[in-house]
Amino acid sequence: MSTAIERHLYDVVVIGAGGAGLRAAIEARLAGKRTAIISKSLFGKAHTVMAEGGAAAAMGNANSRDNWMVHFRDTMRGGKFLNNFRMAELHAKEAPERIWELETYGALFDRTKDGKISQRNFGGHEYPRLAHVGDRTGLELIRTLQQKIVSLQQEDYAETGNYESRIRVFQETTVTELLLDGDRVAGAFGYYRESGEFVLFEAPAVVLATGGVGRSYKVTSNSWEYTGDGHALALRAGATLINMEFLQFHPTGMVWPPSVKGILVTESVRGDGGVLRNSEGKRFMFDYVPDVFRKQYAETEEEADRWYTDPDNNRRPPELLPRDEVARAINSEVKAGRGSPAGGVFLDIASRMPAEQIIRRLPSMHHQFKELADVDITKEPMEVGPTCHYVMGGVEVEPDTGAAFGRVQGLFAAGEVSGGMHGSNRLGGNSLSDLLVFGKRAGEHASAYVDTLPARPKPAKVDVAAAVEVALAPLVRTGGENPYTLQQDLQVVMGDLVGIIRREGELTDALKRLQELRVRVANVSSDGGRRYNPGWHLALDLRNMLVVSECTAKAALEREESRGGHTREDFPKMSPQWRRVNLVCSVDEAGEVHLDRKPVPRMRDELLSLFERSELTKYMTDEELSELEAE
Amino acid sequence: MKRHFRVWRGDASGGDLRDFDVEVNEGEVVLDIIHRLQATQTPDLACRWNCKAGKCGSCSMEINGKPRLGCMTRMSTFTEDETITITPIRTFPVIRDLVTDVSFNYEKARETPAFAPPPGLAPGEYRMQQVDVERSQEFRKCIECFLCQNTCHVIRDHDENKPAFSGPRNFIRAAELDMHPLDDRTDRKEFAQASQGLGYCNITKCCTEVCPEHIKITDNAIIPMKERVVDRRYDPLVWLGRKIFRRDQLESAENMAPSTTVGVAGTSGGTTLGASGVPHSSVRLPESAPIGPDGRMDVAELLAPQQGGLSPFGEDISFPLPPEYITYTHPERDKNQ
Ligand SMILES: Cc1cc2nc3c(=O)[nH]c(=O)nc-3n(C[C@H](O)[C@H](O)[C@H](O)COP(=O)(O)OP(=O)(O)OC[C@H]3O[C@@H](n4cnc5c(N)ncnc54)[C@H](O)[C@@H]3O)c2cc1C
Ligand code: SF4
Ligand code: SF4
Ligand code: FES
């Protein structure tokens, strides 16, 4: 087997070609740096393509009272005050500029009557705030950035006669290791998926923009790319992860048929009158209204049904409880044996309104089920269940620059792979704007960092040789386990034991099983050669999935409270003490995961003053409150 | 229940159809079957996919000879005893199994001049009406599955036309920019005609038929682009003169990157122009559009004996083909190229 390694020299290497990666690359190129973009799939097909709803930015086009302070407040509330306040602040302030900038790259958003960018309502946002293009906003975003990169390449072509003289896209290329020179980033090592050949990028600065981790779960809205590579690369390079216990589960993903398992069913189905039923046909949500919400939610089906037409004199149906409550309820029904055949519950709109009304109110859902599943939602109920959707946790970064914390230097992170911005729960639409704001910042600061270096760091030959060996191991080994079986087993452990509702016993059990899996993964083998061999690729991704899963399980066991995307059945309340704590993961030389507690940074006073005191009392300890008083 | 499948396996050096019996469950799509094959019988079977929801355009393949997205082709659309034959898309060189080298499409996209922002408008000052952006928005729905490129007979089995022909995906990109309310360039149609090989297209509409996003490629993009080019340069002599003039103009313009009429000849396979200023092709010269006495083109479906274009597979064939009729051999790359 040839172990020849192709070598490339760049100033900035961006790993990931989603919204965050492309925006970072544009910025690095504009700063005059020779830039490489690396992506596991084809250019323009990263996960960002799947986002539907929109990108949140307080442009105030739909309601002129909207501004960055309102957006900031919404984001902090959504994240239950655990967010890194500085990131939330920068995000709210800069999102409008970043969206407007897209128009100068050629984006065509839906318009308001006076010709501005139209903005739509979304859960948790006080005013209509999401810039959108129908239900394909992510596609517009990624295509726009892709085309901007092409236009920069055209400028370079005009000047140098070579499209790739300043910015080059390495598509279908996977990075498996970051290389260091002391504590400084010196490059990245990976392979071309097409040929299986190895490639070494020497670069003083690396931007991680690799997205999320959802592939470790049985039911997920995420694609095969989401194996937590960036998280794991950062850990192994000496950086740290925060908030890894917080995963967003959307309550209504499709569970049947298998071809569409995990795909989202929009919340407006419930908003428009859809109800949840168990296998006995019972509308079970009435049994799951928690005391704190008792006053706002209906107690009888009759009252709930009246709400749709007369919301002023009736209370809301319990199907419209917050996402985590609904997800929890569905989970309990399934566990009690009252689930649907495919392990979800029934979402029924067919019996609730005439067919033509369903088609008029929910055209895209009707279309989605027809095209993907051959299910006519005007005749049959849908089968739905919670689906793993987004990871709030990620690389711990310096808010202004996106530089990773920990001992490593020259490593930056942006997008879903970075942590802190969304706290314990992300608001819909805040991700796309997050990609743009922090993608730009990471690209800019990575470039600035390169300028400060007196000499280029060099990757060590032994490290490269070690990376080659690790990459080839599954092919060389014979008779080891099949990577697909291992992935399925991992998904079972994470889905069943570190899923939406967590318990101490199950988490301890999960950690034990992850240890067992680790031994098996170390022994994985794959048939076939190096050319486009998905079995081999999966075998290499597994170790990343595993270490990231371990971080999630460890942090979930440690955090003894329920908050946002982390629900502990044994600690069902939100605790002000725990709000002050971030859980930080790192790995040591031997690859063991360590967990440390770190205080959450204290919000600046002028930002604190944006909130009513009565609201702060819900989140803060008495001690913090009396400190406030004293000022 | 087990069903019978034939899947093409191999690489650039050759390959063949292999037989598999695979478990199929209710509600599954073809991509699920490929995943089951990977998990149970052929862990190294190569296939692209990402979203499994028809949003990313990765999983293009030919199923019983029809260009389709694997994730949007339900198993229930086949009869129970039917053999399902899966082959890679045919217009692009095979890398391995169902994965092909689609870099042609990215190169052609790179030769199409990008959006030119209007001078004097700061970010945030763009004002456009919904009705005006909708035409371009239709084309921006494109998920770049390249099924249209794969189907177009100008390059399907005609590698020699590839240098001169950008294909329907890039025609809609040119049309999108042409119809963009604020794009600052006015020569999108001329560019499409002169450098993208729009003239090769004879409006068979096969591209429209296979587009999973239901973009009306021919009616809404190609025909309007042709018409307006026709309007401006109906007289071929005037056209030639103007074309040369435009080329001068293009070369002196700023930020024009590769968008001269000679494309990016030589470097990444743009059009090479002969002495007459027309592209070389071993097959045929670009056909000019069929223009009526009024200087406009017929709207094809109103006059044609049938709706839509002719099938690229011939009119006397219906799908799916019985397996014994599929004589698939993957085109070999021309060694002299
Ligand atoms: C169904 C769905 C709907 C959503 N809807 C919305 C919405 O309406 N609004 C919103 O704001 N957010 C939404 N989100 C969330 C949002 O889409 C994502 O969080 C966001 O797109 C992530 O972008 P990113 O740039 O961080 O990474 P991605 O776009 O996921 O890109 C990751 C990139 O990294 C590359 N990569 C990964 N690992 C490696 C490696 N080892 N080597 C090389 N390259 C690698 C991948 O190939 C890819 O190019 C939605 C998510 C889903 C799944
Ligand atoms: S109409 Fe026919 S010839 Fe023209 S681009 Fe489409 S498939 Fe090709
Ligand atoms: S125009 Fe349609 S068929 Fe062609 S690449 Fe785009 S989505 Fe695919
Ligand atoms: S997997 Fe994305 S279109 Fe089929």
UniProtKB/TrEMBL annotation, chain A:
SUPFAM superfamilies assigned to the protein according to its UniProt record, in alphabetical order: FAD/NAD(P)-binding domain (SSF51905), Succinate dehydrogenase/fumarate reductase flavoprotein C-terminal domain (SSF46977), Succinate dehydrogenase/fumarate reductase flavoprotein, catalytic domain (SSF56425)
Taxonomic superkingdom: Bacteria
Pfam family, one: Succ_DH_flav_C
UniProt key word Acyltransferase: no
Domain Fumarate reductase/succinate dehydrogenase flavoprotein-like C-terminal intervals: 488-600
Domain FAD-dependent oxidoreductase 2 FAD-binding: 11-432
Keywords for the protein's UniProt record, in alphabetical order: Flavoprotein, Oxidoreductase
Claim: Coiled coil is one of the keywords in the record: no
Protein name: Fumarate reductase/succinate dehydrogenase flavoprotein subunit
UniProtKB/TrEMBL annotation, chain B:
PROSITE patterns: 2FE2S_FER_1 (PS00197), 2FE2S_FER_2 (PS51085)
Pfam families, alphabetized: Fer2_3 (PF13085), Fer4_8 (PF13183)
Cofactor dependence: [2Fe-2S] cluster; [3Fe-4S] cluster; [4Fe-4S] cluster
Keyword tRNA processing appears in the UniProt entry: no
Keyword vocabulary terms for this entry: 2Fe-2S, 4Fe-4S, Iron, Iron-sulfur, Metal-binding, Oxidoreductase
Ranges where the 2Fe-2S ferredoxin-type domain occurs: 3-90
Alphabetized Gene3D superfamilies for the sequence: 3.10.20.30, Alpha-helical ferredoxin
Pathways involved: Carbohydrate metabolism; tricarboxylic acid cycle
Family, per entry: Belongs to the succinate dehydrogenase/fumarate reductase iron-sulfur protein family.
Protein name (record): Succinate dehydrogenase/fumarate reductase iron-sulfur subunit
